[in-house]
Description:
Blueprint: E1 2-3, E2 6-7, H1 15-39, H2 41-45, H3 60-83, H4 90-118, H5 120-137, E3 159-164, E4 167-172, E5 181-184, E6 188-189, E7 194-197, E8 203-208, E9 213-214, E10 229-231, E11 237-241, H6 245-255, H7 264-299, H8 307-319, H9 327-349, H10 368-371, H11 377-389, H12 401-407, E12 410-413, E13 426-435, E14 444-445, E15 451-452, H13 459-480, E16 484-493, E17 501-503, H14 512-526, H15 532-546, E18 552-553, H16 562-568, E19 578-588, H17 592-601, E20 611-612, E21 615-623, E22 629-635, H18 637-642, E23 644-648, E24 653-655, H19 658-674, E25 676-685, E26 697-700, H20 705-708, H21 715-722, H22 739-745, H23 754-759, E27 764-773, H24 778-789, E28 793-797, H25 802-812, E29 821-823, H26 844-847, E30 855-856, E31 866-867, E32 900-904, E33 912-916, E34 927-928, H27 935-953, H28 957-963, H29 965-968, H30 1004-1010, E35 1020-1022, H31 1026-1038, E36 1043-1048, H32 1055-1060, E37 1063-1067, H33 1092-1100, E38 1106-1108, H34 1116-1153, H35 1162-1178, H36 1203-1216, H37 1218-1242
Parallel strand pairs: 12-28, 12-36, 18-20, 19-26, 23-27, 28-35, 29-35, 36-37, 37-38
Antiparallel strand pairs: 1-2, 3-4, 5-11, 6-9, 7-8, 7-11, 10-26, 13-16, 13-27, 14-15, 16-17, 16-30, 19-21, 21-22, 22-25, 23-24, 25-27, 31-34, 32-33
Amino acid sequence: MEASGVAYDGISYSTREALSVLYEEIGQELEKLKAEVGASNWKRQFSFLHDKNVESLFHWTSGVLMLFLAVCLLVSYLVIYYRGYNVEHGWLVVECLLLLLFVVVNVYWGMWNNCMKNQDFFRLATQTLQKLENCLRCNSWNASNFPHVHSPLSPCVSLQWTIRDQELVNVPHALLVKGDIILMRPGQQVPARCQELEESDEIHDLILNQGDIYNPGTQHEIEHFAVPQQKQPLEPQKFVLLETPYLKNLRCMLEDSFKRPDSIIDHQKYAVLIVWLERRIIPTVFILMLITNTIRYVYLKDQIGHWTEMFLTLQVQSVFPLLPLVFPLIWQLLDIYGQSRVVTVFHVTKKSKIVPEGSFSSDSSLSVDEAREELDWREIWHRYLEIFRGNSPSVCRKINLVHILGSVTSLCCVDKKGILSWPNPSAEKIFVLAAGQKDSLPQTVTTDGSQQGTPQETPKSNSMDSKKKNERGKFQNAVFGTKSKVEVLDLTHDAKSAFGLHFDDPTWKKHINSLKPLGLNILTNTCHLHTISWYTQFTDHVASAALENEETVAVVNRRCLCELAKQIGFSDQALDIFSLNKILGLYRQVPVEAANRDRVQRSRPFGNHRIPMPNMVSVVVQEKNSGICQLMSQGTADVLLDCCSDFWSGDDLCVLTESHRKKILDFYHRTSMASYCTAFSYRPLTQHFSPQLNKMYIELPVNCSDILFPEVVNPQSDIDTDMSTDCQPAFSVSRAFSVDSLFETTSIASIEDVSGCFHAQTNQIFIGMVTMQYQARQEFVQLIEKLEGACIRFVHFSQENEVRSRVFSEKMGLEAGWNCHISLRSKKSKKSSSRPDSVIQGDLSHHASHHSSHHSTNTVGRENNVFLSKQKHSITSQQRSYSAPSVVNLDASQVKFEVKVMKANHGRGSSFTNIEADMDVEKDCLIISDKAECNSDIIPRLMDHEAELQNECDLPIDWLEDSGEDIVDMESHHTSSYVTENTDSFRDVLDDNRAQLPQGIENIRPHLENVDNVPLLVNLFTDCTADTSQEMMKIMQEYGEVVLCLGSSVNIYNTQLFLQADCSLAIEPMYPQVCAKQPVMLDPWDEDQPSPMQIASTLLTIICPLSFKKEDHVGLIKLIAEARNHLMSVSGCFYLMVCYVLSISLIQVLASLFLLPPVLASQHLLWLVLVVIPLLSLTMMGNPVDPSMMSLASRKNKNHLTKQMVVQFILYFSLRFVPSIAITLLCHGLTLYSFCQVVISSSNSTRCALYDFK
């Protein structure tokens, strides 16, 4: 069956067949491109002769000049020859022949180098094709050699589910071929043009293009329903590829249509050799000599030679030293030598070990050992021959590695995960709720605010008071919950391993009772290998659902935490006593109205932040011995918290109150801004699930408070509706606080429907939360420090939003504060809208007190601090689920604190109602300290409400004081976990950074032209794509930056970035793992055979001179030091040669001006110019690497030869060479005079010299 030229017979390719197709298509594309290039081959071959070609070493103007001078010498010789041959004039023929020879040699040398340069990419593509052929010849790949199918997605690694050998494998994009059967996952980006296949193997009409997002569940608007809905999981769909993705990259590389600027040293060479010597100095010398010799010929006929000598030979000999005779050959050979040294340093340093953590110093200076590397001359010679012959395994002519590394000013890294950071996020903080300390005997507070001691009780009233206290305690715990405090434990990632971590607090084991349920949940849910495939499908489904609302994003928070469970104390055999029973998943959408409102509210500080999609994954495990089932849940804190009614304090179960929820949501919302926060909960189960519920997900209503709150105990709403006159609570659902009571009070019937499945996941027990963050690799932190000392700006092109990018940049040691980052995402037109008056702008983190301890009792206040605000809605109408962070949901309760007091209304049957506290607090008095002026008025009014409630309910006031502390938060403490470099750093984003710097790539150039150059100084660009990053690199190059690009070798979208940069280095990233227990992939059995990822890396890094493997040490500093040392040596050699030839030419000119014979004859000129001067100049190449040169800033790639540089050169030349020239000329004149005296004494001549000193 044919589909757009693709034949599909219903059978997928085998690995060998796919490689064969790829081999044939790459070969055909190479032949096609070679034919296109061959049509204009003659133009490309002689392009080096163009006088505007900066890289060229020999131009047509130089060839014409040398031919002209050769003709002059030939004419002079022929005239003299016919008049009478003189042996001394025979050197004119030698000089003429040498000029012609060097013209031919330089033209041939230029053509050969230009041909090698034009064929560089084609040669490497042919070598890669040969590697493919070797893989075809002895291919032994299997599914285990490809990355794990369920490996976490990473933007640095381009992978696609493909059917090969009747198996599902994760194939890199570079190895996909036309006709491959791929499985498109919901929410996935399309790798290439493809067409859908139906199950009947008939071609469907759906065709997707590269870059499209496959969304099989697309809806025009979000559905509105009132009860939980069953959703069928979205399955990956089969598609057939209509094109080979890699061919576009190959064509892009071979055409090389991106214009890269020439290097700084090439510009300087061109300015000196062509602009000054050839176009200015040589014409000036020739004309000056011609005028001088003409005057001598006219007025000093007795003191002159033949006319051919006066008008031809003397001019040629004055200009001859300035001609580019041996310079092109010497320059190219030295350039090859420099590249061979740098490549040798690369192969030596990549095998070296990374500096241990303890030996790293914050000193950015470079030591001698760090700058120099002992190299074997035999290895250098081997690399030299490879480059000279054009057999190098990497780019050596098209991109000059030495020139770029030696003058680089900006190092741009375009990938993060697996390169700058470890491939997997590691746990950074653990949040748990713990029971607070018990208070001493409470004191009674009177209505006037005075305190009285508790009177002694009589034995008669003791039993009644004890009963009343027990009833009061039950009511107090049920309504307001027990006194609790927040415990936040910090963890530090081990810099030497991908998963290693340890607790910062040495006394962390005192919280072991709170951590054990968390560790068990991690092992049974997060790190259970049997749940991997299910979770992959669930995240795809959620990602597709998130596309329905542009304000939401599916965040994968479920990553490996095995090491955390191990630190807590669990062994690998901890799961042996459990068996996996069932996996459940639920999610919900964010209301469109709320999302639109939140978008307006965050338009200024968080314009690019999207709301995490609320979801929860639950695993039912059964104990093998007892048969008891446990429901282990994890997910986003907003939806998981809605399903919880209690929390585990480490000692007992406690009721979750509104205050507890505020603490949890506040921590979640602020940490989820910059990291990945996952909440955990559990509950025992007595029911089993029907098999018909196996393949389904639950989508909750957008506003699910009506169905959640009746199930989750809401004390305040219960009090509002069901509280009797004797103040005894009546809950709508029986609550069990132990397994025994659970069997007595709950049903054990089978769960058959969606409603029952959902209800089984409610009334859970909140365990805690874990935040995860990508940690910076120490190797690159040290590299950035050394780059800063070398005056090289490190630039990170981050694909993440501003908040996440800034947090990670701070971990890298980059400046990421105000005015230090730019978003490249274009601005979207937004309608202006005013904030509601009821919204109080603020965040807890703005007022948090910093302490070194890692625990707190609340995040709302401390000691006598009281948070007060206007209450605009009743308690029963409030929604306790917040999908957006507190900075976004400004109208949510976590940033709007209300004081709620209950009172009995005798006129309404003594039922409790909610009243508003008539306390109008200004914005500046949001936090009221004990020293505040308004405190004296508010506290008595609060006591009045308590006294009134005491009188009407016949309850002592002390229970209100005890239970109400969770509402007014009299003894809350703040911890550093709420204000850290990770959770508090994004508060600075509220400073309007975009007011100072442009936003959007289209606004960068206008800002540079009209405002300032700050965009060229920042270290961080956020919200980047491949196109915007490429355009920003181009802008940097336009303003003189020398850009070195660092990126992933298996990211197919990096090709255009590698081509745009002056030079690019590819790094194989560390691949993300499903779990520490599960390897990413296995190497082939044959050690000599490359793996699929290595072949893909080779295909995509043809244009990169150097490519690092994931286990290699990135010793970039030594490469830069070696390249800088070589460029400085070459520059010294070049300028010394220029000074020598200028000196010789000046001597010849001055001799004619002073009416003297030429100082140097033809044979002397040839000896000096062709032998002595090159050898003397090459002595500058023996300098060892000097560490101090790494503290010198490289020049911008503009204004290469300024007026100041010319004046400085003239000054140095005058001081160093002119005195020697004057002495030489004086000695020459005196020598001639003494010789004339001998001639006069031996002959009867009266005068021999022009100057007579007698």
